[in-house]
Amino acid sequence: MFRRILIANRGEIAVRIIRACREMGIEAVAVYSDADAHALHVSMADRAVRIGPPPASASYLSSDAIIAAARDTGAEAVHPGYGFLAENHDFAFACANAGLVFIGPPGPVIQQMGSKIAARQLAARAGAPVVPGETPADQRDESIAAAARRIGFPVLLKPAEGGGGIGMKAVLEEAGLLPAIAQARREARAAFGDGTLYVERLIARPRHVEVQILADDHGHVVHLFERECSIQRRHQKVIEETPSTALTPALRARMGEAAVAVARAAGYRNAGTIEFLLDMEGRAFYFLEMNTRLQVEHPVTEQVVGVDIVRAQIAVAAGQPLPWSQQQLSQRGHAIEARVYAEDAARNDLPQAGPLLLYREPSMPGVRVDSGYAEGGEVSVHYDPLMAKVIASGETRETARARLLAALRTYPILGIQTNIPLLLELLEHPRFIAGDVDTQFLDQEGDAIRARLVTDPPPEVLAVAEQAVRAPASGTRASATTDHDPWSVLRGIRV
Amino acid sequence: MSETQGSGIKGQGSGEHTEVRVLGDGRYQVVSEGRSTIAYAAAGNGGTWVFLQGRTYFVQTEQPSGRRGGRADDELALSAPMPATVVAVNVVPGQQVARGDVLVTLEAMKMELAIKAPRDGTVRRIACRAGELVQPGVPLVELE
Question: Whole-prediction pTM value?
Answer without folding.
Answer: 0.79
